[in-house]
Specification:
- There is one protein chain.
- With 74 residues, the chain is mainly α.
- It is 55% helix and 0% strand.
- It is globular.
- The relative contact order is 0.18.
- InterPro entries: UPF0435.
- It holds the Pfam family DUF1128.
- This is DUF1128 domain-containing protein.
Length: 74
Amino acid sequence: MNLNEPTISNMAFMIDEIKSKLKMATAAAMQPSHFDLKRYEDIKDIYEVIASKPNFSISEVEALVSELGKLRNQ
């Protein structure tokens, strides 16, 4: 998968991977359709941070989820 291409399917893949890696309790509330493709690079940045670490502290998870929340469609 070439994540350098800003496509809806790539964004959906990254969102699903983020939810899985962070073991989000509210994962059902975070759907790829909640994000605009214009935010692709921001989501990719968060995805790359999450993919680079094996685990996260509670405060890191909270910060990452907060950033994702800011990127959601209003």
